Amino acid sequence: MEQRGEPARWVEEDPTTGTFRVRRSVMTDGAVWRLERERIFARRWLFAGHESEVPSPGDYVRRTVGTRPIFLVRGADGVVRAFYNACPHRGATICRQDAGQARSLQCFYHSWTFSPEGALIALPDEEGYGPNFDRGAMGLVAPPRHESYRGFHFVCYDPASEPLAAFLGNARDYLDLVVDQSVAGVRVVPGSQRYVINANWKLLVENDLDSYHAVPLHKTYFSYVAGLGGGTAMHGRGMGLARNLGGGHGAFDAPAPYGRPVARWDPLFGDEARAEIAALRAGLVARHGEVKAFRMADTIRNLVTYPSLLVNDGVAVTVRLLEPLGPDATEVTAWALAPAEEPEPRLARRLDSFLTFYGPGGFATPDDVEALESCQAGFAAGIEWSDMSRGMHRTPVHTDEAHIRGFWRQWAADVGGGPEPDQSEASGPVDWSTVMADWQAGFARAAAAAERA
Ligand code: FES
Ligand SMILES: [Fe+2]
């Protein structure tokens, strides 16, 4: 491995030959992981939770974010706060359940008790500390930064970090597109999926942005949908966008190759849902206009906000938080996001779709997990480079890798301690009405071809 602080050649690119490659040791080396902790996870904004997880005063959720224990709790004043899950007294864990409701939070070690707003409100035998004891200075400790964007709460351990909205930059459009699908705001459907993948966290980032694998790896799902008479053969046919959003954030957009609970009917949902889904789509058009409604209903997208939040708006909406456990293991926590106003049976349809594709026992996630674990295992061969050069010679489409290269450039700049990376291949503004016309024509061609077959 290179010496720390050197402009490390972990990522090499040569625009003249159209090559971009990543050294595989960055997925296995403990020293690289230690640099990532210090230079990415201790410096960048990290997703911590969604406001709907703590709807009422006293509600809390705990989790590990960027290797540090934290919890979110809603105060009696309605404000959601983030605190380190470590007692100001001597460090014991305060929240000892993943989620709950409490009028006050009592540390189990010596019974110091805190309000949900973080104040130390009671402790046994306070007189033992003498007259200078300052209760006001012994409250729960908050991470240096905590902000939210449209209900998504993030923390940052670097007091000097830029504001969250500036950090998210162009990625905000993608969060907006999810939140705006609902009238009453989105909520996390209670319950989560948690699993550990024996693979480096960056492999999951790549996988989330990688559309190249969708058809070959997920053929079971596509044949399942086709067997029900649904889906389209458009995926992988050059229709789709790779968006390098800057700052390491990336996304792809593509015509929906399957139904979408938000407002795109597919035989998967049954004939009885047809009229209802058409009405939902009409509602989106009325609220947002034809072009944005088209994006919401008839296209899919995956978003990665650098470094570790994935929001996939496909057969349902899933939010995934990646928590590296070391260089070769990653814990994933996944939630389904749904319009707060969505009633049964629409919610059931969404969750069914969510589990069928994204669930840990669904049609897609086990394929992805198997692929990533096999890459990690393959790294033991000692082959030096992974290739990431698809689409460098052309205007990249979603099955190319411009958006993945954007992630890697930011990563290399952060971990190598270099300046902000150049934004070559940054995607410019998209003319969505032209895209809509193109993709609608593609849908029409696919439908005509299906008719003929
Ligand atoms: S460590 Fe929490 S009260 Fe002592
Ligand atoms: Fe996949």
Q: In one word, what is the shape?
A: globular
End-to-end separation in angstroms reads 55 Å
| Classification by helices and strands | alpha+beta
Small-molecule components bound:
FE2/S2 (inorganic) cluster, fe (ii) ion
Low-confidence stretches: 1-7
Task: Tell me the name of the CATH class of the largest domain.
Answer: Alpha Beta
Provide the domain count: 2
What is the overall pLDDT average? Answer: 92
CATH topology of the largest domain: Naphthalene 1,2-dioxygenase Alpha Subunit, Chain A, domain 1
The largest β sheet comes out as: 8 strands, antiparallel
Number of strands: 21
Beta-strand percentage?
15-25%
User: Helical amount among residues, as a percent range?
Assistant: 25-40%
Compute the number of helices. Answer: 11
Q: In angstroms, what is the radius of gyration?
A: 23 Å
Features:
binds FE2/S2 (inorganic) cluster; binds fe (ii) ion; 30% helix; alpha+beta; 8-stranded antiparallel β-sheet; 453 residues; Naphthalene 1,2-dioxygenase Alpha Subunit, Chain A, domain 1; Rieske Iron-sulfur Protein
Textual characterization of the structure:
The protein has 2 domains: 46-149, Rieske Iron-sulfur Protein (3-layer Sandwich); 170-452, Naphthalene 1,2-dioxygenase Alpha Subunit, Chain A, domain 1 (Alpha-Beta Complex), CATH 3.90.380.10. The protein is globular. It has 453 residues and is of the alpha+beta class. Helix 1 (30-41) crosses helix 10 (402-416). Residues 1-7 have low confidence and may be disordered. Strand 15 and strand 16 form a beta hairpin. It has 11 helices and 21 strands. Strands 13, 14, 15, 16, 17, 18, 19 and 20 form an 8-stranded antiparallel beta sheet that branches. Residues 207, 213, 217-218, 364, 368 line the site of fe (ii) ion.
